[in-house]
TrEMBL record:
Biased composition (Low complexity): 57-77
UniProtKB keywords: ATP-binding, Cytoplasm, Helicase, Hydrolase, Mitochondrion, Nucleotide-binding, Nucleus, Repeat, RNA-binding, rRNA processing, Transcription
Annotated family: Belongs to the DEAD box helicase family. DDX21/DDX50 subfamily.
Protein name as catalogued: RNA helicase
The species this protein was found in: Serinus canaria (Island canary)
GO molecular function, one term: hydrolase activity
Localization per record: Cytoplasm, Cytosol; Mitochondrion; Nucleus, Nucleolus; Nucleus, Nucleoplasm
Length: 631
């Protein structure tokens, strides 16, 4: 009826308006200036099953849906249509029809949300399928595992299958860590039902070869043990893959790899197995060592090239100065602001002891578990599975989780100190910003580690954005936002049980005060501790003094403060720093020019409250040192 149609139209408009409001990005942090941390980039999650290696970015998928569903020829709609056409153009090279993929493989790819192949997969598929040796370098998170998995699967499935029990493997994939071995084997299993996949690593039972193996994935140590004990036969291997080759051919693995491949390779023979080397970083020495296993003519595929930036372009890199003694307390605030209560975060530590201590840190509002080499293999697998499935939100790990692991939708990576090996930073930061998603990587550093930070910038081709540790205002705002989302998720049936208590609280405290207290408790922000924005020290407030006099050195600034505040100022003010260079010449009062800034941090107890502290400093300094003070 006409009446029903009108109601339906009204409801549709309301839904559209609500969706538009919901899609608006969250508001940035309060205030401005260099001390305010930038708002983390959030992408609207599309509930679609995917493997985290290949697929369209969330933003691109939304653009395509908008362009397809809209029949309005407005400028906005035409712009969306243009975006859709651009995306289609990008996807043309990776269309399944361009490659010898079986219908079964295409169905399995589509079922996992993969619409087309990524550039590294496009470049490597045909050379690998044709049997050529390949060295491939691409940034982390671009789908390197499928780059060799898909063509090898299709190659093996295109020939008649050997179904004999106890058959030896045709494909050998060597990887540096147990976790990566498990993941690579899983990726193979996801895209073939005909081939037998086995995974050998320390702590795993040996039983797969009894029924025969087509593709074997494993760590060098475990594979070498089985070969030496005559439990594994590799004479039939036709394809060898070294994943994370820079680490695989490292001094610790080179000897093991040579022992494993010794029986399969003969110098100068054209009958040697096809050799495939993959990694995000390929130093020059890797190519030199790799020639030992490769034919004279091999394909070199480099998707990084001479580009300065070696990390993923979808990752934003931030640096926060933080003393080691304050690191545990600051981590909770950093994770809360940049990832939220429900976001996934990986924290990288240098030692197993540090990983255990941080995992038990009471300041973390999110559930956290540690992952390192001392943890039994079975428990490591359970931990990784729990993190992938969202059972807990924070994984605190050593380098064991840095290479190759693909954990979907990691919002934030934190490195507790700048690594001395720049390649380690590249691999660690690559755990976020994968498959088109955006991510944030934060590197904590002490003042004495600034040279290491600059070294990472230079060699990785990135620039860290220096930010302060999140302020109390940032933490409260992020906690409140998470608490509101939790309230929205409460079903109406559960609300009814608490109505009477809610009414009593409203009568007693008032609606706003009662709800504010509830939000503070839910968010875990009932007790907020002030932190210095300069070095994350707890119990300090950072102040910026804008001066209009000439200051020749830091000592001059200290003398000026002592003259006005007394010698005891040493116990109240610390971490003084010029924000515009070491020696600053300020414009004289009333003259034009850029104002300089002097930054200090002081304990709030000096003057009771921030407001009183502000008035105190302004009253003392405005007479003798014309300047303004701000937080």
């Amino acid at each position: 009826t006409p009446g029903k149609k009108v109601k339906q139209q009204v409801k549709a408009k309301r839904r559209g308006k609500a969706e538009a409001e919901q899609a608006q990005p969250e508001e940035g942090g309060l205030g401005d200036g260099d001390f305010e941390p930038p708002v983390p980039k959030k992408t609207k999650k599309v509930k679609e099953k995917r493997n985290g290696l290949v697929g369209e970015s969330d933003a691109s998928q939304q653009a395509v849906k908008s362009a397809v569903s809209s029949s309005v020829t407005s400028p906005a709609a035409r712009e969306q249509d243009s975006d859709a056409e651009e995306l289609t153009e990008e996807a043309k090279e990776g269309a399944f029809s361009n490659f010898p993929l079986s219908q079964n493989t295409i169905k399995l790819l589509t079922a996992r949300g993969i619409k087309y192949l990524f550039p590294v997969q496009v470049k490597t598929f045909q050379p690998i399928y044709d049997g050529k040796d390949v060295i491939a370098q691409a940034r982390t998170g671009t789908g390197k595992t499928l780059s060799f998995a898909l063509p090898l699967i299709e190659k093996l499935q295109s020939v008649s299958q050997d179904g004999r029990r106890g058959r030896a493997p045709k494909v050998l994939v060597l990887v540096p860590t147990r976790e990566l071995a498990i993941q690579v084997a899983k990726d193979f299993k996801n895209f073939t039902k005909k081939l037998s996949i086995a995974c050998f690593y320390g702590g795993a039972p040996y039983k797969e070869q009894r029924n025969g193996i087509d593709i074997l994935v494993g760590t060098p140590g475990r594979i070498k043990d089985h070969v030496q004990n005559s439990k594994l036969e590799l004479s039939s291997v036709k394809h060898v893959v070294l994943d994370e080759v820079d680490h695989m051919l490292d001094m610790g693995f080179a000897e093991q790899v040579e022992e494993i491949l010794g029986s399969s390779y003969k110098k100068g023979s054209e009958n040697n197995p096809q050799t495939l080397l993959f990694s995000a970083t390929c130093p020059r020495w890797v190519y030199d060592v790799a020639k030992k296993y490769m034919r004279d003519e091999y394909e070199q595929i480099d998707l990084v090239g001479k580009k300065t930036q070696r990390t993923a372009t979808t990752v934003e890199h931030l640096a926060i100065q933080c003393r080691s003694s304050q690191r545990a307390g600051a981590l909770g605030d950093i994770i809360q602001v940049y990832s939220g209560t429900r976001g996934r975060t990986i924290v990288f530590c240098e030692t197993k002891k540090e990983a255990n201590e941080l995992a038990m840190n009471a300041s973390l509002k999110q559930d956290a578990q540690s992952l390192h080499g001392d943890i039994p293999q079975k428990q490591r697998e359970i931990t990784l599975k729990g993190f992938r499935n969202g059972v807990f939100e924070v994984l605190i790990a050593t380098n064991v989780a840095a290479r190759g692991l693909d954990i979907p939708e990691v919002d934030l990576v934190i490195q507790c100190s700048p690594p001395k090996d720049v390649d380690s930073y590249i691999h660690r930061s690559g755990r976020t910003g994968r498959a088109g998603r955006t991510g944030i990587c934060i590197c904590l550093f002490q003042r004495k580690e600034e040279d290491l930070l600059k070294q990472v910038e230079h060699k990785a081709g990135i620039t860290f954005k220096r930010v302060g540790v999140p302020s109390a205002t940032d933490v409260i705002k992020a906690s409140s936002s998470d608490a509101k989302k939790l309230l929205e998720a409460v079903p109406p049936s559960a609300v009814d049980y608490f109505r009477k208590s809610a009414e009593e609280l409203i009568d007693e405290k008032g609606a706003v005060a009662a709800l504010a207290a509830a939000l503070a408790h839910i968010s875990g922000a009932a007790h907020i501790q002030q932190r210095s924005l300069l070095n994350s020290t707890a119990g300090f407030v950072t102040m910026v003094l804008k001066c209009s006099i000439e200051m020749h050195s830091m000592g001059y600034a200290w003398r000026g403060l002592k003259e006005q505040l007394g010698e005891e100022v040493d116990n109240k003010v610390s971490a003084m720093r010029f924000l515009k260079g070491k020696m600053v010449r300020w414009p004289s009062p009333g003259s034009a020019g850029v104002w300089g800034f002097l930054c200090v941090h002081v304990p709030p107890v000096c003057a009771g409250t921030e407001a009183e502290l502000l008035r105190y400093w302004y009253r003392v300094l405005v007479v003798h040192y014309p300047c303004s003070v701000s937080f």
